[in-house]
Amino acid sequence: MALSKEQIAQRIAKEVKDGYYVNLGIGIPTLVANFVRDDISVEFQSENGILGMGPFPFEGEEDPDLINAGKQTITAMPGASFFDSAMSFGMIRGQHVDLTILGAMEVSQNGDIANWKIPGKMVKGMGGAMDLVASAENIIVAMMHTNREGESKLLRQCSLPLTGVKCVKKIVTDLAVLEIIEGKFHLLERAPGISVEEIQKATEGDLIIKGNIPEMVF
User: Fold this and answer.
1) Which CATH class is domain 5-208?
2) So which residues are the catalytic ones?
3) Distance between alpha carbon 114 and the CA centroid of its chain, in Å?
4) In this structure, are residues 45 and 53 in contact, taking their beta carbons and an 8 Å threshold?
5) Within 10 Å of residue 64's Cβ, how many Cβ atoms?
6) pLDDT at 103 over 80
């Protein structure tokens, strides 16, 4: 069965290590903060100017002045700091963020990412994505494997305007966990109940499958 957005975030949370500084993009990535283990220390950064984001607030406990880059209400952890966008992007461009988690409309087998514009449609714009993908060394993409028409979003070449080139390292979709190695998608894990054949059918790009592919464990 394909994963929900929350389950994609839960799987990505396993990639977050103790001591990491992590930037969470708009969409599915914002959910990752809800699933990080309690026994590790992680600092979540938002490019609108906060270091030390916590999980989403419970209903009725929202502070309208405390938001992330996607304008969602958030919480702040003890010791959180607040600053302007110039300092925030200084952190990003200065490569002080250990892990960047982004959503995407398309990813190519070369590691290119397109996540900011669909010609002829209204989208939120690029935000800080171009700075993030240009500066980060460790980028994980959270996305659906196919679009609403059932067409693959994991492609040989992106058809949409690029956000970054050869920058994506790992992808977690509703069907699989994949790593990009030497210009190919390598299948690492599959969603519970999803077959390798289903993932192959949903992937337009070159997919490398080695050995027995385990199911994701939550």
Assistant:
1) alpha beta
2) 47
3) 12
4) yes
5) 6
6) yes
